[in-house]
Design brief:
The complex is a heterodimer of chains A (266) and B (357). Chain A is mostly helical and 266 residues long. Helices cover 80% and strands 0% of the residues of chain A. Chain A is globular, with a radius of gyration of 21 Å. Chain B is α+β, with helices and mostly antiparallel strands. Chain B contains 9 helices and 21 strands. Chain B is globular and about 80 Å long. Classes of the chains: A mainly alpha (266), B alpha+beta (357).
Chain lengths: 266, 357
């Protein structure tokens, strides 16, 4: 039994690690640093950071209320809403990008109204953020919802016998206790936004400096400048790895200390 | 003053309760698990909606099934101590106790003063900066009580407040808790499954059986006149049903039960009666007693249980026919050398048998 488990796990880990190691071995630290100043790399890096931070912020801002509603309320059509929120996780990103184009393109449902106001979304940096939000939202909402739903019912009962309104209980009990789950979801959705490719290239295009994020730049570099592709890939790899590792290393108590120190809004 | 008359149906279980409790008093609600104690307590807290009836606290209606009034828990002037205390794990002891005051928008100055006072009263002021997981069970219990009383509730609800504690802690904390509750101006409803706690805390005791109050009254009432075998067994008194043996014949009046006859002091008119023999009326001896006791039963000692709270008495369970429970002092247990399995005589006077309807 033990042999089988060890062997299977080893094979899987090796399979996952091999491509990453191969990538890292292609380039030395010195080469990596030397190419960092490259304008193509720099532009893509800056754009990726700005858009994925923005996208994550939007996902968190809209995702917290949505996750709270899903965790605490029962309503008609809840199942349909749940599926809608989960859908981007399984949808091919190109399909998502195409759907976004149909919605926000010049001739699209929402796009017509927007262009009447003089706003054009496709092939702008805003479109990159929209594509990332669309693809990354479920990765935040699912764990956050589970975090809210997992708060001990008895604590909520205690709060309500202590004169706490729903809002007070939310800020003082629900939110702090769900923070570990929320941070996990945040890291997952930030990593997803950072790596987003298909929806971005379909909906936002591939314009250097405006919509060419790192994954897009890797794709372009692959055709002409293999070393540039390696640099960008390694950077992406290190950022994603750091994001997920940092999340695992933070103990729940650390989050609580923060939450305990924060004063709830009235 | 708390008045409760509610009916609830939960699946196959039905709860129908009618009771009252005065300010500055502790009403103990005692019953086995599944008797509906917690359901009733949650209805009082507003965490559960009853199907019908009315709950009033002073002149405020908390629940009225007829008009649909249902005051939510956060708007009731209650304090609720859950069985497992439900302290907020991410907040310090101070913040746990301050929680309700912050929720009510109490300003920082009075808030600190009131939290400190509550922590001092429950003896946990020095733990203010700790987190719940750093506390012992007894300390957690005190914090939970401080958190409830800091709001100066008009109704304090305690759900098995001692049952999560080990025996030693429980004995220590019981006296303190009793003194604390006696000082509170509010109505206190104390739920327990333990007869010992019921006796220790309740000025009034209501016994809950299968969702119904089978009896309520003062401690003494219940001891002297248990109205059901369940209550008697619960309180550890000897309770039998029987019939008067024809009293026209010679000799003293007697009552026959399924397990034997009892001599009583005064004849009764009714044929169906109940007998109560208080455990303290029973005298134990190793030889057959020669004195004036008219009721003598021979048997063996089954078990000896120290009788809390103080422990100066022992409850002796006897394998006699009928089975009896005697309560004797610790000294006489030792003097008689009582031990399980040992033959013994139990005797009591005819006047020691209380006959109730």
């Amino acid at each position: 039994m033990r042999v089988v488990l060890t062997a299977a796990t080893t094979v899987l880990v090796a399979f996952l690690a091999l491509p990453l190691v191969s990538l890292l071995l292609r380039i030395s630290a010195r080469q990596l640093l030397a190419r960092l100043g490259d304008p193509v790399v720099l532009d893509a890096l800056r754009l990726s950071l700005v858009t994925s931070v923005l996208a994550t912020a939007i996902v968190v801002a809209l995702g917290i209320p949505a996750a709270y509603v899903l965790a605490t309320r029962a309503f008609r059509g809840k199942r349909v809403v749940e599926v809608l929120i989960d859908l981007p996780m399984v949808l091919p990103p190109t399909v998502a990008g195409f759907a976004l184009l149909m919605a926000f393109g010049r001739m699209g449902l929402a796009g017509k109204a927007l262009s009447a106001l003089g706003i054009t979304l496709p092939f702008t940096t805003a479109a990159v953020v929209i594509a990332q939000v669309f693809m990354a939202a479920p990765f935040f909402i699912a764990p956050t919802r589970a975090g809210f739903a997992g708060v001990d019912r008895r604590l909520l009962d205690a709060a309500s016998t202590l004169r706490a309104s729903e809002a007070f209980t939310f800020f003082r009990v629900m939110l702090p206790l769900a923070i570990p789950s929320m941070v996990a979801g945040m890291a997952m959705s930030a990593a997803r936004a950072l790596g987003e490719f298909g929806a971005t290239i379909t909906f936002a295009g591939n314009l250097p400096g405006t919509t060419q994020t790192m994954p897009l730049a890797v794709y372009v570099a692959l055709q002409s400048d293999l070393d540039g592709a390696v640099v960008l890939s390694v950077l992406l790899l290190l950022m994603s790895f750091g994001l997920l590792l940092g999340l695992r290393s933070a103990p729940a108590g650390w989050f609580w200390t923060r939450a305990g120190a924060a004063r709830p809004g009235r | 003053m708390l008045r409760v008359r509610v009916a609830s149906r939960l699946g196959g279980f039905s709860l129908e309760v009618d009771l009252e409790a005065e300010d500055r008093s502790v009403l103990v609600l005692v019953g086995e698990s599944g008797s509906g104690k917690t359901t009733l307590l949650r209805s009082l807290a507003g965490l559960l909606r009853s199907d019908a009836g009315m709950i009033t606290l002073g002149d405020e209606v908390l629940f009225d099934g007829a008009t649909g009034v249902m005051v939510p828990p956060e708007s009731r002037a209650i304090g609720y101590v859950a069985q497992d205390y439900a302290l907020f794990p991410h907040l310090s002891v101070f913040e746990n106790v301050a929680f309700g005051l912050r929720a009510s928008g109490v300003a920082s100055g009075p808030l600190h003063e009131r939290v400190d006072t509550a922590l001092r009263r429950t003896g946990v002021l020095d733990l203010a900066r700790r987190r719940p997981h750093e506390l012992s069970g007894g300390q957690q219990q005190r914090v939970a009580i401080a958190r409830a009383i800091v709001l100066e509730p008009r109704l304090l609800l305690l759900d098995e407040p001692l049952s999560a504690l080990d025996l030693k802690t429980r004995q220590g904390i019981r006296g303190e808790l009793r003194r604390l509750l006696a000082e509170l101006p509010c109505v206190t409803v104390y739920v327990t499954h333990s007869p010992t706690e019921a006796m220790a805390f309740g000025q009034r005791i209501a016994v809950l059986e299968n969702g119904r109050i089978s009896q309520q009254g003062s401690r003494d009432d219940l001891m002297r006149h248990p109205r059901s075998a369940y209550v008697a067994a619960f309180l550890g008194v000897n309770f039998f049903r029987g019939a008067m043996v024809d009293a026209r014949g010679p000799g003293e009046p007697r009552i026959a039960t399924a397990d034997g006859e009892f001599a009583i002091a005064d004849p009764r008119q009714e044929s169906d009666v109940a007998l109560v023999v208080h455990p303290r009326e029973i005298i134990l001896s190793r030889e057959r007693p020669t004195g004036s006791a008219r009721n003598v039963f021979a048997g063996t000692v089954e078990e000896i249980v120290p009788e809390p709270p103080a422990g100066e008495h022992m409850r002796v369970l006897l394998a006699t026919r009928p089975p009896l429970v005697a309560e004797v002092t610790k000294e006489s247990t030792e003097a008689l050398g009582l031990a399980p399995g040992q033959p013994v005589f139990a005797s009591f006077k005819a006047t020691g048998v209380a006959v109730i309807r």
